[in-house]
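Subject: for your reference before the review

Hello V.,

The reviewers asked for a structural picture of the protein, and I figured it would be easier to keep everything in one thread rather than splitting it across files. Below is the amino acid sequence we used in the manuscript, unchanged from the supplementary table.
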Amino acid sequence: MRRVLLAVGILWTMPNTLLGLVAGLVALAYGAQAQFSRRDCAVVFNDMPWGPGGALTLGNVILHTGASLDVPCMTYAHRAGLAREEAIGLADHERAHVLQYMALGPLFLPLYFACGGVGVRNRFERAADRYARSGRGWWPWPD
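And here is what came back from the structure prediction:
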């Protein structure tokens, strides 16, 4: 059953994944490196040559400006000065976004931006930080 749900999620978010693949494939010509991460259920493009730094997830694609997702990063609450928290793993944070995309498919981007875009007030980012800290809680709405 888990494999069926995984396949449905991958198909459901395919429009988002295609956007990420196009960006990643273009970036290959400028030095980006591609790999499949089974753990993250995503194609990861490292060494992206543009962007403000960090990572961006589009469906089952993670676009990352660094050499590896296996690096620590600070939570959005910590960066906003709202909490003093230990660093989390960037790969874990982005994996939460992959799961969110697979659950919401083409609804993810409109809902993400309706919730405020990139920043500590966005429930999607807070949920991704929570998941990276604990391995649970990637869903952005309370039960």
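For the response letter, the relevant points are probably these. The longest helix spans residues 14-28. Strands lie at 33-37, 42-46, 55-58, 61-64, 72-73, 88-89.

Happy to draft the paragraph if you're swamped.

O.
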